Amino acid sequence: MSFLSRLFGRRSPEAPIQELQSLDVVAKRHDGAVDLVIVVMGYLDGSPTTQELLKTKLEYYLECVNNPDFRRDFDDPPAETTHIVIECPSEPAPEISDLVRQLAPHVKRQGACLRLSNRAA
What we know:
Blueprint: H1 3-8, E1 25-28, E2 34-39, H2 48-65, H3 68-73, E3 82-88, H4 94-109, E4 113-118
């Protein structure tokens, strides 16, 4: 049974981050940059469970960024133009913003930039 299934059952509308082993959105921009978007389906509270969901999804994205097929398909993009964007429907809890700041150096070492985006802003 997967981590998400153990926490929430198969798929739950309550889980703000779903499909932990799947890329939500990947797009190559005209300027050659690559955006990988984690689509958040609800409020990102600061709970340990939500933080663990985000870290698990992010690690999957980093595995993909470092996959030789991905690197070939997207012309071996440098970290500066490979963006992992956490797309939130509302302002996340301060704990999530802090977590993203803490994880950003790790993500950079793995070949991407990390940022939060708030659709409501």
